[in-house]
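Before the break, one more example. Copy the sequence into your notebook; we will annotate it together after we see the structure.
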Amino acid sequence: MPGEPLTDAGEWLSFPDAPKIVVPPPGPRSRAMLDEQARLETEAVGYPHYFPIAPKIARGSTIEDVDGNRFIDWVSGISVLNLGHRHPRLVAALEAQAERIWHALELPTEARLRFLKALDGALPGDLRHHARIFLTVTGGDAVETAVNLADHAQKRHGTVAFSGAYHGVHGGAANLTSGRRYRAPNAFPGGSVVRVPYPDPYRPVLGADEGAAGTIAYLEHLVNDPHSGVDTLSSVLVEPILGEGGYVVPPDDFLPSLREFCDRHDLLLIADEVQTGLGRTGKMWAVEHANVTPDLVCVAKTIGGGLPLSVVAYRSDLVPDLPRGFHLGTFRGNPLAMAVGAETLAVLSEGELLDRTRHRGARVLERLRELAGRHPALGDVRGRGFMIGAEFVRDRRSRQAWGDRAKAMRSALLARGVLMHTAGAWEQVLRFMAPLVIEDELLDRGLMAFEEALLSLESAPAVTRTSGPVGPRASPGELRRPPEHAAPVPGVPPVPGPTLEGVTRTGA
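Here is what the structure looks like once it is written out:
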């Protein structure tokens, strides 16, 4: 960041010359590989349309593609790489474990016990040293397991989940996710879900701009009013900060009030920390900002450092005798992933990384808010630590979401060597989720590229789109997006390969 000493040459984890664009992406070699992928793989893949590059090697907070372009990575595999690409200590842990054993079912190994002990000592609040751990594979797998555990423990069914929530898209977890486009193709709807608006201070539905009182009052109505339409509930599932829903930070009283609500009505509180956990918000767990202990917590993404591993940790007194074979899976608890997971917890627990994430994140937030003061399309900037959302609007008074501008920004940033992804109901939010270990110089260069992209789009002629579906293959009954203006982004050729109906190849 400006005014800070430069990172010592021996401390760099990333390519120090990033961003470096030697040929406008996608370059010829990337284009050829994208074409080959499109020929061989299902057209259901999405990320090649957002980031039309073919990665060759990654270091720290940077990626080099096959054409020699080097990018600053503010995507981090969607918060999978909180410690960056190929952190030296994680590489060493992986290599050491690869010399021992790769697959062991549920049998105890040194890697398994080391991981379990490390996680047990790192859990939030009263769960620490008072939890049982259920090993799973993906974030959605962990969430589905947690809900099944809650229903089993309570001997009743029904889960409160929130609008904007993303809890996975396979099996029963898809029904817990709020987006129609995720649930529509799923043949397994899962259990009983009661949807409640998430308290969003920028787009309040139940008075979230005045705290969480409106949300809690609505929840009280659901459980107390015999005509509310809700028969039974076992649990409340919540993201401490919305992830795919737009990086929405709820009012400070939301999680404490939700904890009290659950206690009043004998409901279990499940915290989905898949994206918010393991230092992303500047604390090990996002619930720690509110001093709240959930009954169950779901962990994934960074815990495996890029290898498939997820966890449900639950109160040790919650289920005294869980049936053997409850929620099976061949690849749960992979020794390679657990060796990396134990070392991940060690790195996060040592030194000042979490404190630095809070302080540096606050300064990134301040810089983005300064830009919002000069660029009216930036309607709101919010976040904690390295979990920051920048929301684009067509008009600050109406707060009409401007998804086309956020997607055009994503393309403009790509052309300048910075990877940044969208979120939100209309993909109107750009989210900052850089690795926590990113060098200060790369933060500053990325922020300069962000402002350059803003200026380039403001000077480009607008193209009016008066109609169009919500997204790919929108059905007649689905809601329509508000009309938006898309700004062309020079220097970013179309992505090769097939394109979904209604989605442009540049992502704009």
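The two ends are 30 Å apart (CA to CA). The longest strand covers residues 378-384. Try to locate both features in your own notes.
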